[in-house]
Amino acid sequence: MPLLTTRGGGSARGFGLQGGGFKGIVATGGTITEQGNFYLHTFNGSDTFQITKASAIYPTYDWFIIGAGSGGAGGQLHQHPGSGGAAGYIEEANGVTGNVGSFPVVIGSGGAGAISQQVGGGAGNASTIFGNSANPGNSVGGVARVGGSNDVYNGGTSNNRQTAGGGAGAGQNGSGTEGGNGYPNSIDGTNNVHGGGGGGADSPSHPNSGGTGGGGNFAFGPSPATQNRGSGGGGGFINGGGTGSDGVCFIKYQVAG
């Protein structure tokens, strides 16, 4: 998967597609990689997607974006373990006609994990593109045993005093103390799931997993979510919570056939 250019780079024409084989949109922005007959723009931070030339042969593109995850809450021994943060939610579209123009891409930053015991986790921030807003994971209460939620899914609820709920994923609710799984989409060709919910806190001998798609685990100490997956941070047992991860955006289009 050759790297063609990075953020703000020049022409998207690259490597094996020069010499007349290129028939797609010409665009810049983000990090551009060649995937067979397609180009993929990956935005791990805010930037601009700029189409400098439209195509009559392969005129459309697909896009995917996710809001940032929220941070996990902090917990206190024999009191309230910290709940997991929620993943952001997604927006996507396929077959969009690529017209010449400049289109700002905003990538939301992850919510802060609690810095001390019995403190809530911070909400993430929205990611936006083409006038669409992918909302973030919501904040997590400092003394509640319910995991964080997002626009569509709810956090899990623990069933005893010594545990806390897992955060909602971008693809499902949190389940008890486990983070909800993320949303599957193969647009980037590698990380096919984004937006796992953070795991809720439990006793050190019972680690709780974050949801698939980068949710932060709980394993005595909370872990941050995997970066640029829009995932929630893990809850803390007797300490602070893990940070949520920033969002990400992908744009993909065919350039040869």
Can you walk me through this structure?
The chain has 257 residues and is an all-beta fold. Helices cover 0% and strands 26% of the residues. It has no helices and 15 strands. It has strands at 3-5, 26-28, 31-35, 38-43, 47-53, 60-66, 90-97, 101-106, 127-129, 132-134, 183-184, 193-194, 218-219, 221-222, 248-254. The strands form 4 sheets. A 6-stranded antiparallel sheet has the order 1-3-4-15-6-7, with no helix packed on it. The two termini are 17 Å apart. 61% of the residues are buried. Mean pLDDT is 88; it is low at 7-13.
Write the layout of secondary structure elements.
Layout: E1 3-5, E2 26-28, E3 31-35, E4 38-43, E5 47-53, E6 60-66, E7 90-97, E8 101-106, E9 127-129, E10 132-134, E11 183-184, E12 193-194, E13 218-219, E14 221-222, E15 248-254
Antiparallel strand pairs: 1-3, 2-5, 3-4, 4-15, 5-8, 6-7, 6-15, 8-9, 9-10, 11-12, 13-14
- Pairing-aware structural class of the strands and helices? mainly beta
Q: How far apart, in Å, are the first and last alpha carbons?
A: 17 Å
According to DSSP, the number of beta strands is 15
Radius of gyration (Å):
20 Å
Biggest β-sheet: strands ordered side by side in the sheet: 1-3-4-15-6-7
Mean pLDDT: 88
Share of β-strand residues: 25-35%
Largest sheet: 6 strands, antiparallel
Instruction: Please provide the ordered H/E string of secondary-structure elements.
Output: EEEEEEEEEEEEEEE
Helix content: under 10%
**Residue windows where pLDDT falls under 50 for at least 5 positions:** 7-13
Number of helices: 0
The assembly state of the depicted protein chains is: single chain
Shape: elongated
